[in-house]
Design goal:
This protein is of the alpha/beta class. The chain has a domain at about 1-15 and about 60-110. The chain is about 25% helix and about 30% strand. It contains 3 helices and 6 strands. Strands 1, 2, 3, 4, 5 and 6 form a 6-stranded mixed beta sheet that branches. The longest helix has 9 residues, at about 70-75. The chain is globular, with a radius of gyration of 12 Å.
Length: about 110
């Protein structure tokens, strides 16, 4: 099964808050393996825009450090799985952990 996983990036690693990222690293996976990846620049941050933007790109899941409750709801409405409270790590490692069912979610780093 093909899946697109987005990770908000700042300084080459997971950004603590997805809405303030420099880029999104999107990994295309199939049958539990990473097939390709690309960096995309998001549009300027506005409330509610990024879930729709990523949904239009075909993203199925997002891994984030922190995310507001409104954004979580909008991702859900766009049928995008959300994994938040994830510790900063190399993006490829995070995707591999998700594929291996070993990704650990923790405390949401966002309070709005």
């Amino acid at each position: 099964m093909k899946k697109l996983i987005a990770i908000p990036i700042a300084n080459g690693q997971l950004c603590a808050h997805f809405g303030h990222c420099e880029k999104f690293w999107i990994f295309t996976t199939e049958n539990g393996k990473i097939k390709s990846d690309e960096l995309i620049t998001p549009p300027p941050h506005e409330p509610g825009l990024l879930p729709r933007f990523l949904g239009e790109k075909g993203v199925n899941a997002i891994i984030a450090g922190g995310m507001g409750s409104r954004a979580q709801g909008l991702f859900s409405q766009n049928s995008i799985d959300v994994y938040f409270g994830v510790e900063v790590d190399e993006p490829k490692n995070l995707v591999q952990k998700l594929l291996n069912n070993t990704l650990v979610s923790g405390v949401n780093l966002c309070d709005h």
